[in-house]
């Protein structure tokens, strides 16, 4: 009886387990409470495609990924595809998709500056116009690191040729330039060195085009040179 009496006359209220926040309601969405710059920083640590997928979360997230300062266009599953296709077949089948992806991202990108711009796919001189536009975009956004990696198994006779003299290849922000399987002539490197005074790292691999390169100047800040 005493037990029943205690239960009947108790003033305690049952704990509400369905209130917002306890079961993951809107109040519990701590991530969305963070300021935009923190969210952009978090997305910068994701792959580019993962960051883009966050646009479906809400209207606030729709455009946030477009402000990330790291644009790394790494090709997914390329080596798996290569198990079934030759290099030429890969370029014919997958390169148009890759070019379209890069173009769509840079057309919608909103950050005024870039920490890194990276192209990593099996491209050659057939894609010269697109690649040159991408380089121009990277310089226009004052990229600190620029990397073109077109893979060494592409026929060297069809390598993309880095522009020799271009007004866009002038930057006070560029600190690192990496070119792999890209034809680069002496004059192009010398032009970059003269017009990118903060350049600290220059990496060129599989170019085969150097003949009489001069790397000199009192204003050079190079810490690493790999040719």
From TrEMBL:
Gene3D superfamilies: 1.20.1280.50, Ribonuclease Inhibitor. It comes from the Eukaryota. InterPro entries: At1g61320/At1g61330-like, F-box-like_dom_sf, F-box_AtFBL13-like, F-box_dom, LRR_dom_sf, LRR_FXL15/At3g58940/PEG3-like. Signal peptide: none annotated. Residues 28-82 form the F-box domain. Pfam families: F-box, LRR_At5g56370. This is F-box domain-containing protein.
